[in-house]
User: Fold this.
Amino acid sequence: MKLPGPALKALAGGKALASLGISLVRLPLKVFEGREGREWRTVVITVVAVFAAMAALGGYGAVSAGAVYNFLIGLALTMCIFSLLGLGLQLQFGHAGILNLGLIAFAGLAAYGMGIVWRHAGVGLAASIQANAGLQAAVLGCIAITAAAFSTPIAGLLVQRLRPRASTRFKRVAVVAAAVAAGAIAVLLFLPLDQNRSRDAVMLLGMLVGIGAAVGLAFLFAIPAIRLREDYLAIVTLGAAELLESFYRNEIWLTGGTEGILNLHNPISERALSNGAWQGFVDALDPNLKAVGLAQLLVAALLLFYFYVLFEALIRSPWGRVLRAIREDDAVAGALGKNVNRFRLQALVLGSMAVAVAGILIALRTSTIFPGTYERALTFSTWVALVVGGVSNNKGVVAGAAIVLVALPELARNLRALESLGIQNIVGPGQGLAAGLMLILVMMYRPHGLVGRKEELLFGR
Amino acid sequence: MDGDVVLRAVDVTKRFGGLQAVDGVSLDVQAGTITGIIGPNGAGKTTLFNVLAGFYPPTSGQVLLRGEDITDLPAHERSQKGLARTFQITRTLARLTVAENLLLGPRGQVGERALFAIFARPSVAEQESGIRERVDEMLRAFGLDHLKDAYAGSLSGGQRKLLELARALMTDPSVVLLDEPVAGVNPTLASELLDRIDRLRKERGITFVLVEHDLETVFSRCDPVVVLAGGRKVCEGPPETVQGDGRVLEAYMGG
Amino acid sequence: MNGLVLGSILALAGIGLSLVYGILKLANFAHGDFVTLGAFLAFLFAVVLGGSLEAFGLTVGGGLIALLVVDMFWLHRLVWGERLLLVALGAPLAVVAAVLSLSGRGGSGTTDLMLVEAALLSVVASIGVALAFERLVWRPIRRKKGTVLTLVIVSIGVSLVLRNAIQIAFGTGNRSFERPTTVSPNVLGVQISTAQQAAFVATALIIVGAHLFLARTRTGKAMRAMADNLELARISGVDVDREVTHVWVLAAGLTAVTGVFLTLVANNVMNINMGVGLILPLFAAVILGGIGSPYGAVAGGFLVGIATKTASLWIGSRYEVAAALAVLIAMLLVRPQGLFGGRAA
Assistant:
């Protein structure tokens, strides 16, 4: 019996989708092949080793397996946040050669952007949204659009990877379909718009404002970045970050000064606590696990994954190729018709988005924002992590973060034992000292770090 | 006749501090020709070249490309308008592969725009495959296809010269400025390069302007020939005329 | 602290930074931390010495003589001029100290004297630290032809190491010199009443001394030549490695003194972040004056100091850093080679 036309088409479509799904599942396994594969293995081994060591060390104070897990989850969250910082810096420096010593300023600005919106308008705005149907529609529309926009890059990449030889039309349709689906899912997550949801929406708005502010700062930074030599740029960026920090401390009417902004509405925490399914899931894993902590880790990890994939794809695209050419010889790039300044600006701006998201995650971790949190030391730590992991290789960022920003501080904490010898206050500076030594030694003896590529070295021998 | 002038310099001067490197030079380059610029050391050839290429703006004067004033345009915008240049000491992008060097050339790549690279991957992929085909063609034409994935830094001097020229051609130029294209190159390769240039001129109508020290090359391959000395144009015309002109000898001897 | 005082602080530290930046092409982000180091080392020596003249004399004099002996038998690095200097400085100190202690006529000097001793010891120790970094870090990188980028990043590492080492050794709190609230050092027999004026005058003297050094001595001239054009200087016979050592000696000596002065003018308070806050104005001063030009650094230091304090009258002292930043950006965009035309951008 011959099936009617439309049924045949539906069947073919179904088969296509199914095979697409299978390809999707098989994708992660392809990661460990070849030279890239070796680099991945190095990174994974490093991270696993660090966490194993942390578990062993941190276990001395633990009461139960659950407590150790919570501890490790906290460390993993730190690692994800700092990896995001590192990814942003990597794009700016490792790929575009911009020596940004004011990195943390972007994180702080994004956090404060979000915090200021909440502090000055949050609750009221949320109430208005809850009450007003028109506003609700507008807000949901924004959420849908944002979700669609953020999902487009990933969808495009997936389609390209899984079905490279399909027609461009098919690919475009697939991407649009994915974007619409993402938008729909996002909207569903926000319905119904009760008090919590409205506040979530306001916080989301605040995040967009914060990220926008960070992007604005990137444009500002671009002005000197384009004209100045590396060392001059380093000085200027350092100064700009200092200026911003005094601003946060001093403009109390806006930022709350050193008292900071407290009691941020935390969408992640709220949902983790109120969602029965999530609570059940976490309980099933281990009764001592904290639902909020795991939720935060999940969000951070997803964001890290997102930015990693996005940035890697960018680096491998024609855009990334031009960036590499500029790194090599910007005069030649210009002679080939590339507007060098525009590319540097774009790298700066895109990098700043990752840093901004990291800043927001830092704020959401404690639901507070203090000027001292976004301090110079974090910029320097990120730099050390970048160098140790390997400049110009995005994977290295995660390994570097694991070593410098997870392992090192925890190991330093163990130095507390030395306090019995009369050396007070060794934990913080001990970590800083070790970080500084690491930076010097790596730069001198293994400038390409853990997984950096010798032939792509930015420093030149 | 004016409609055939593809590149024009009008009364160009360039001063560096106290030094007058180029002093009121005017030049009309006809389409489809190979113009050679010669002159003793310090005559201002390289400076004029760099002004034409857009590396620095002239102190006064104009540069016109097909009638359009490009005097104030930076180098990358001139390239986008079809004016390509090569470098005297080859500047291959050493840590990119040969293929990648060439892939940089074509104009109007949507993938080079960040927004497209992020949001319009499928379109980028489509255009990219077309560009890769062009690159493969160019590699075959220049005999470099066996080096496709080698790092440009590992190439021999002669291969780099070829790469430099191929890369400039990938930008689909109408005018190519060549800075001492056969300097330090063995005669066989020099001859091959110049034959190629001639073929490109005939087959694709590309105009070439070259600055050279090797007088034999210039007189045998270029028409017209322009002689500069002391920052000024001493004489200009077909090679036979210029060769016979007494002023040229004076310029080289007396300076 | 008024503009002139801040200016003198910046000028003092700036000379060294300008030379290091100009000759070694090193944008030394650790320079501020050397200032901090100088202050804390002086504090350490003040505590340890307690004002004892013999202790001071024996330590310094003995140390210098010991260095001479070690060099003559083992290192063979010093030239006769340097050896003579060590003997000239060390022998009298050691002799006087020995005489004092043997005759029992030593004992605590005044707190002012103790401060001077501590400062001098801090100078020596700071120089030692700087030379250690030069040998262990900067020279190997120079040999490997490190780029500007490498140097900047490594200097950040050095800054981290210094700052944290000081913190481990001395804790996070503020420290002070033990002394009466008014400083009245005798300068050429004239009593200066406040610490600030004293610092200013002392700075002026040191600057004059530095000028004489740079203009009249062979080493000084060699340094200026190296700052102008390193290769040319090398070809003209300047022993670059030795002169680089001298540059660090000068720079570290000056930062040590700056550290002591800064403590004094800041109401006798030192903390680990004091140097860090100087870094930006220092770079502004050095770039304003022209990298590699010590005179430029002095001029730049005073200009930035006065500008900062004047600006803080309008925008408030909390945003002082903005003034320095503004100067910096303006200079870099308009005239990167500075007033005295050190090097172009």
